[in-house]
């Protein structure tokens, strides 16, 4: 609590000297990072202890703010604290003199954003939850529009604000249904309320729409690839890494805690949407040529995977299979934690690249591993993790999810038990495509030859930025190498959510055995040690038994004199197979040059079909409705007086 | 006993893998009425490459030099966790079948990244195509493994192999579908004929070879050896899932293990001949037909899963 207040204070301190970059960057942001570490420690300690409650007598009269710290909240606070520590320290070195919002103001918005995310996780009544939720949306809106000079960014910000409010309205409705006639809006009252199955289902679906909007479930994802790239990189990292997780937190809180035991069929909705989102997001990520948009679409994919696990957990829980529900929940929580670290790391990596080159377009980057080795190698860790490769962290959560899919045919309903394992096929496809996306992302930015001459002057990340990157990369490695320990912690949360805790760890510390009866095990440390060991032995053996002589020479380019950067694949070229295979997802506009063009131009634009088939018709309907209303709004005072008189007469007629 | 099995598996894998590749080439040559080069040719080739001085392109990053070692090491580790002769392998506890698929993906990603490193046209082209094949083949392989692992309800490969090996000879219709899918994946992943031609060098349609154009000497030797190991590994995954008979299981003693070696060689001889026959009978597909080919593999694997759930067998 105090730490969150401290964050807010740090923010306010930023107001004191808004223009002094040195003061804000060198003092306040590192202080925020320290705060983040402290929060992570406090939250980690809070995981084991029983729930604590605080009632704050602020706010509206008779409506004090209820706060509660339980294992679920602690876990997400840990996520917030540990990730934001890395991001804040990076941000300390990142924000520089530029256009748009001044440093002090950014500092306020940034820290209010952090504090409000913490409040979302602590809130124990609907009022404070919504208050924190809206503060979060607004503060991040201002952060997104930090460079408000650009029309494109203002547009992205507006779209974000609009979608955030659509989501908030459905959440309000969901809370309204959940209070169940008691008109008490504390979460305790909601836990005690007995809802009819229909009302509970309505509340669940409304909450799913609300949280799904924040999480970017297709078709509610449209704001995400616009808003995340528009923000400054540390803010993109916070939004993708942490803010999306507040939606996961909210969905878990409402479904498993406030609504009691979910009905099994609820799970099919997030499962189906999650699977579709995962595939859709990753297919779009593969065809992007803006590096931050690519990452934003990849976030859509990952949240899709999280919601798939969410649906699976509900199905298992509803089917009375709490051990498998625990497995799915742990996969969900693990993936949320992983994604927070991986995606923040990658967004910060793009931030460093953006700073040093001023380019976001993949088509103008390349070869940066030579100029920016720190950024490149640390980003590689994130990219491999996001590609789901063992022994890093992304693999562990995918492994857990696939394991829980493997047993999903044991649910007691025919058809459902046959269709569920097919979800594993989609998850596997999305995971394999994620590897494609990451090879494209890393390969085009950091490998090959520089595509622009200006890249020769790129410089590596500053010291503070490196500390931030190293912190997050270490997080990825630690989460990957010590899964047995992480799962032990997540077990507590799964148990709180009503799933049976997995059996206690029996094997040695390095072995992960989630379900001992099923004979499956995975050991990341052994895996890692084996790979490193074989690499070292091979390298040594080659040098001992043969030799290590080496010489440099020009690469072979089919006999042409000189290697040109334009011979490499462009980002569009690398995505071309995906454009072809998943052609029905995209609406494609292509300008092909004719052979007689003097200045041939090739342009390809890939856009979301959902815009055309859902949002544009919706926009037209809203516009029409607004036009109808406008007819009544003449703007002349006499007309309004007439309206008032008519209303009065009608009311009198009704009453008398 | 466990350690012994593990060491034996590793030695056999490292030694037999290039010979297996040589055997496939031998059969191909026979089928095409050519004089065969002898099955030790891949070995002699690898040895020759190890003697040469490495020539690295200017502008190659350390990643380029690191990648062959990682690819080789992934393949060796994969060979160590596939129960080709015995199911009592200590390392298999560290990685189940899903981790094995992840391991193969790691090798692929590193090879693709290394191919993009120098920035030549062929390198990036190969990387793109390899990843395209990979993202379709990997889920198909995973589905094959999941379908097979539904039978004993575990993804641990030795447990699957042991379960199927000790089962009375039954008919699993699902395995027919997954077996077909697996064969298609094996062809695609090992750069065999309908997808890629291992015999060509420098063709616009090549995939695997175009990633290796910048490699030479020890790096190339390691990659060649790793490719041989990959083919061997895929064959052994196939044996473990579809013809697991003859592997030594828990408590069957050293005699069973020794008997498993010639049996493995026999299986490999049969598989190699079949592979050569498939390759000789089919023509290479256009690159853009490859996704269809792999989509069929993926569908077959999913069908296998469905059939298993429908029939319970």
Polypeptide structure, described:
Helices cover 68% and strands 4% of the residues of chain A. Chain A is mainly alpha-helical and 656 residues long. Among the domains of chain A are: 270-321 and 328-502, no CATH class; 582-655, no CATH class. In chain A, a hairpin with an 8-residue loop joins strand 1 (52-56) and strand 2. In chain A, helix 4 (103-122) runs antiparallel to helix 5 (126-144) and helix 16 runs antiparallel to helix 17 (416-446). Chain A is globular and about 105 Å long. Chain A starts with a helix and ends with a helix. In chain B, 61% of the residues are buried. Chain B has one domain. Chain B has helices spanning 2-31, 41-51, 62-81, 97-117, 121-149, 157-166, 173-189, 208-211, 217-242, 253-281, 290-311; one strand spanning 54-57. The model of chain B has no long low-confidence stretch (mean pLDDT 86). Chain B contains eleven helices and one strand. The interface between A and B is large, with 82 and 77 residues.
